[in-house]
Amino acid sequence: MTTDMFLPLLTLVILSLPLPTNANDNNMSDIWATWSGLIQPLLGLFFVILGLHLLLYSHFATHDLMKRYLRSPVIPGQVLSCEEQYLQQYEISVLYTAMVRQYEDDPRNRFRYPTAKIEKSFLRRFRVSERVERGETVELFLLPETGRSGLLKQIVDETYQNHSHFRSVLILVPGGALLSLLQWLALVRVRAMESMTAWIVFGITLFVILLGSQLYTSSRWLTECQRRFFSAVPVKNTNNNNRNNNSKQEPLLMA
């Protein structure tokens, strides 16, 4: 369990511990007592909600990203090399050019010249199942104004099919049923307390769990997206040696 996952759980546990109170702290004492009474169903909801986010968020986000790719323009790319790997897999290096913001990495000038663009060359490596000869032209999808996002059409099509919503149903249906059961048990306990404080504590804590899980999984997805899809290497020198050196910095994308 990483630190980001551990902190929300630790917060829930700490909030459930009974604290010493003075006579004038009756309201705070009621809140802590309510939390102590609700900690078990809240912990159950925490693990189920976070688990569903971890299992499904990247899946749905990848599906939506591939839909964006399919609506994006197709650009040509030149194959610089094709090396046979194993089990009839081939690793190819593809060079392509794209119009990008000139000051993408310079916040000051990017604000001053928001429309300034420049043509840059990018290099990526892919792993495919068919041999592609050196010098051959291949088709890539490119997201608008994202030069590092060049992706082989073959990989976009297969990734889109592999992230269909049918598979997610196999996780969502039992996960949703378990989530509904835990929420029902929590609501039964809240009603049994017959206190407005219990409803407030339950509502706020559930909101924090949902928000924390969403922020954590979206952060993980952005990191994964940058690594898998937006990581083409800009190249300035077009000689083969430089291309091959830069290509070794690239993650492989399986087709």
In short:
The chain has helices at 3-16, 26-70, 107-112, 153-162, 165-193, 196-228, 240-247, and strands spanning 74-84, 90-101, 117-128, 137-141, 151-152, 233-235.
Overview of this protein structure:
It is a single chain. This protein has seven helices and six strands. It is of the alpha+beta class. The chain has two domains: 113 residues, no CATH class; 94 residues, no CATH class. The chain has a six-stranded antiparallel sheet. Helix 1 packs antiparallel against helix 2, helix 2 packs antiparallel against helix 5 and helix 2 packs parallel to helix 6. The longest helix has 45 residues.
Features:
255 residues, alpha+beta, 2 domains, six-stranded antiparallel beta sheet, 7 helices, 6 strands, disordered N terminus
Q: What Rg, in angstroms, do the CA atoms define?
A: 25 Å
The share of residues in extended strands comes to 15-25%
User: Approximately how much helix is present in the residues?
Assistant: 55-70%
What value does the average pLDDT take? 78
Give the SSE layout.
Blueprint: H1 3-16, H2 26-70, E1 74-84, E2 90-101, H3 107-112, E3 117-128, E4 137-141, E5 151-152, H4 153-162, H5 165-193, H6 196-228, E6 233-235, H7 240-247
Helix pairs in contact: 1-2, 1-6, 2-4, 2-5, 2-6
